[in-house]
Each structure stands twice: as structure tokens, then as C-alpha cells.
Design a protein that fits this description.
10 helices; four-stranded parallel beta sheet; three-stranded mixed beta sheet; alpha/beta; about 40% helix; Alpha-Beta Plaits
């Protein structure tokens, strides 16, 4: 059953965005920001909307290759913004609030872009579910007065996907793809080389048909997360050897499969006191 129930959430979202004079949309290419961009283009004159995407080593290469085409599909003007979080030692140290430094860098650039180009407001794709997770980037968004229309209207991730499907967005069921740095265990330094290693490992697994996955980076160990329904695939000795051999070629000494399966934000479990305990 769809999660929209009534069009009330969609109406509220359109009214919220229509009340803005002009917007720069922090556009990652995921379904959340794509929906916000679609609503902005429909509710405002397209000339009053600009989609801006961060470009840095922390963004998966595949995302950068498709994001411009998605903006074109939606009918929005689009620009890449080169961010420099790798110049910040606080970001590279990878503390538990690493995301704050990344988003602070992004929103600093977007605020300057908006001011330079005459746009009134920067908006993002944060949804209501995000407010209940450990997301230090929300602090940066609040400090830069970035609006979050989805969260403000109480729209959840499931509702985002339903509304996106209703509006015909091609990526309504696209798995989330957060920045590559989120795969590195807290306290282990972030480097472009490690992120290229993670990106290469995940790209390889996608060629084998795994759609929703993460390769968590623990120094010389790769911890693979796939949905529980796909864990049995690794019982195939040929597949298991193929994956282990390729990830070792990429640079990992040890390759392991997480028997708890894929879960978004699993690196935060130790921070939230959950460890690996699951029902």
C-alpha cells in the first residue's frame, strides 16, 4: 500500500516551496533531493531554481556521472560546486561528527553561490526520518539557515519514494548512496586513496548484481553489507572467491561478510550504543 494516504503532504510541500522566492537546491542525485528539485521546478519559474552538486573525492564516481542527466530529466539548471573538505584536518581525522565539517563546507559554498547569483534560499533534501538519526550535518544546515522542505512538512523516506513515483521520477526506487567517507570507521583518517578503494570495491559488487550494498572500510579489512536476502549468495564458492580475489587486488588484506546484513548508517551503531545487537 502507498504511504501517501492523501495528497496532503504533496500539497503542503508544494505550498512550502512555492512560498520561496528563488532557491539553490543542494542536489546529491538521490531521491530526496531529486523530489525537492522537481517540486521547486514545478512550483517556481525554472529560472528561479538552480541545482548544485558537490564534487569532491568523497562523492562516488557513479553519482557524478548521472547527476547532470537527472537534473536535465527534471528540467532544472545544474552546476557542480568543487568543495574542499579534504583541506580541513578536522574532516580528515574522521571524528564522529565528521559529517558536520563536510556539510559546513558544502553550505558555505552554496550560500556564496546563492548570494552571488541572486537566489534567496538554499534548500536540501533532509526528510523527517533523518531527524531521528545521528546526523551532525543537520547542525551545519541549521547554522547556514538551509531550509528542509521535506522535514518541515513531516514527509518520511517512504513517502518521498511514493510521491516521487507518483510524479514519475525515474529514480523513485534508487538506493541511497551517501558519501564514501561514511564507509570508513570513525577515528581512522580519511584519504582520497581509501575512498577510491571503497568506490572500486562497491562498483565491482554492483557488476555482480548487488544493488543495495556497502563496503565498510576498517583499515585493511573490508566488511561487506548486503540485504539479508542476498547473504546466501555468498555460499557459492565461485562467487565468494571472485569477490575475495578482487577486493584483495583493490588493496584489502581481509574480506568479510556482515551477517547482520545491510543497514544504513551501521557505522553509527557504536555511537548509539547498539553495537551489533539486533532483533
Amino acid at each position: 500500500m502507498p504511504n501517501i494516504g492523501t495528497p496532503g503532504e504533496l500539497i503542503a510541500l508544494r505550498e512550502r516551496v512555492a512560498g520561496l522566492e528563488s532557491v539553490v537546491v543542494a542536489f546529491s542525485g538521490g531521491v530526496d533531493s531529486a523530489l525537492v528539485l522537481k517540486i521547486a521546478v514545478d512550483a517556481l519559474d525554472p529560472i528561479r531554481v538552480l541545482a548544485a552538486t558537490a564534487r569532491s573525492p568523497s562523492v562516488p564516481r557513479g553519482e557524478l556521472e548521472t547527476v547532470a542527466a537527472l537534473a536535465e530529466e527534471i528540467g532544472a539548471r545544474h552546476e557542480f560546486v568543487d568543495t574542499h573538505e579534504f583541506d580541513n584536518p578536522d574532516y580528515l581525522a574522521n571524528p564522529s561528527n565528521r559529517c558536520y565539517f563536510c556539510k559546513d563546507e558544502l553550505y558555505t559554498h552554496l550560500a556564496r553561490l546563492a548570494e552571488r547569483r541572486g537566489f534567496q534560499t538554499v534548500i536540501n533534501g533532509v526528510n523527517a526520518d533523518d531527524l531521528g538519526d545521528f546526523r551532525p550535518g543537520l547542525t551545519a544546515a541549521n547554522q547556514h539557515r538551509v531550509a528542509a522542505p521535506l522535514a518541515e512538512c513531516g514527509i518520511t523516506k517512504a513517502q518521498v519514494r511514493d510521491i516521487a513515483a507518483t510524479l514519475g521520477l525515474s529514480i523513485h526506487d534508487k538506493p541511497a548512496s551517501p558519501c564514501l567517507s561514511s564507509r570508513v570507521q570513525y577515528g581512522e583518517s580519511i584519504t582520497p586513496e581509501k575512498l577510491r578503494q571503497i568506490d572500486a570495491a562497491e562498483s565491482f559488487l554492483r557488476t555482480l548484481g548487488f544493488r543495495e550494498l556497502r563496503v565498510r572500510h576498517h583499515a585493511n579489512l573490508a566488511r561487506i553489507e548486503v540485504p539479508l536476502g542476498e547473504v546466501p549468495r555468498f555460499a557459492d564458492p565461485e562467487l565468494r572467491k571472485l569477490v575475495a580475489d578482487r577486493l584483495r587486488e583493490i588493496g584489502y588484506q581481509y574480506v568479510t561478510l556482515d551477517l547482520c546484513g545491510f543497514r544504513s548508517g551501521s557505522m553509527n551503531e557504536v555511537l548509539l550504543g547498539r553495537g551489533l545487537a539486533r532483533k
